[in-house]
Specification:
The complex is a heterodimer of chains A (about 190) and B (about 190). Chain A is mostly helical. In chain A, about 75% of the residues lie in helices and about 0% in strands. The N and C termini of chain A lie far apart (about 55 Å). The relative contact order of chain A is 0.10. Chain B has 2 domains: about 50 residues; about 140 residues, Tetracycline Repressor, domain 2. Chain B is elongated and about 60 Å long. In chain B, about 30% of the residues are buried. The chains are: A mainly alpha (about 190), B mainly alpha (about 190). At the A-B interface, α6, α8 and α9 of A face α6, α7, α8 and α9 of B.
Chain lengths: ~190, ~190
Amino acid sequence: MKVDVQKKVKIIQKSMNSIRKMDNTVHTISFSRLADEMAMPLNELTDFFLDIEDMFLNEQTRVTRKMVGLVEKGLKDCKTPNDARELLENSTLKLIELLPDHSDLVYSAIFYLPKCLAERERTKKYYRQALRKIIKKGWPGKIDSVLERQTDLVLLSLYGYMEYCVRANQRERKEIQKDFINMINLHLQDRLFF
Amino acid sequence: MSKPTSNLKDKVVNKAVNSLRKSKRIEQISFASIAVELDVGIDEITSFYSTTEDIFLQAQKKDWESLHRYWDKQIKKAKTPGDFKRAFEIFFERFVETLSKDADLRFELSCYLPECVKYRDKNRIKVKEKFSKLIKRGWPGKDEKVIKRQSELVTVLFYGFIDHIVHIPKNERSKILSDFRNMLNLHLQDRKFF
């Protein structure tokens, strides 16, 4: 496949705009219909993507790859509890920067496209184990059962945060990020957890 | 709605969900095949539903309307801050108790199908308004700004909770429900909210 990144980005942007104008349901949109809608030769789409599912998977994994890179580097450089706390905070900030304008469309489609759904499950497992490491380093002294339970709670909270952010504008995202991270901090300060 | 009508509608929903579980393709669900499997005429199905999407939309509405009816009764009965706190907590209990066995698929469709997404967004506002009312009465003394921010945050977390709970086995749900409620309680005890 070609790797003309600029062209690929333009095609994604144009495709997402067209999908939004059409009817938003990925299962009713074929590549040929999309090409017609965009008045673009079909092969310009197929040069980069196998099908619609491949295009959405590409968008989904693009954000995930960047997030994983950030978290892995952060974990590697993590020396003190404060480093781990900052990593959690910075990751939630980075996420809102990374989400493209069409992230609401990608978010919806993920729930229907099998490869995207499988990728979502894989990513969720990754985030869980990464969060567990961050919590263990950032808020030391918790027993294992507390660590597990709090990891699950932070994970589900993070997915609620993501869902909100894909639909919110930049200002709303930043506002909720502050409150979200403060709430998580308050929760994780509880060493014995009830 | 009469019982036979309600039963038939439930059967149609179950057939559609089963079919989706098998094929993973919404375009492969047809009124004709559901009618054959249920041994009824297609016109009986089309008298209730206009499209396949409509089957899932109506099922989604039915579940939420029932939950709101129950919740409203609890809110109406509440007199003291303790009662309002209880109405807040009981909502989560009821939500988990009444999840259908296909809650995972129904949730995924509610995030994907355009009409279901619209309903979901509308309902989210309704849920947030009720959280706001309960926070105001159950944890009195907060200023309006704090109530607004905490209601938003609780709603964000609740939608992450939904995503999580529908994807875990039934026997694991009560444990996370209890932890989730405790986390929210701790957060709401903070009168000034940072």
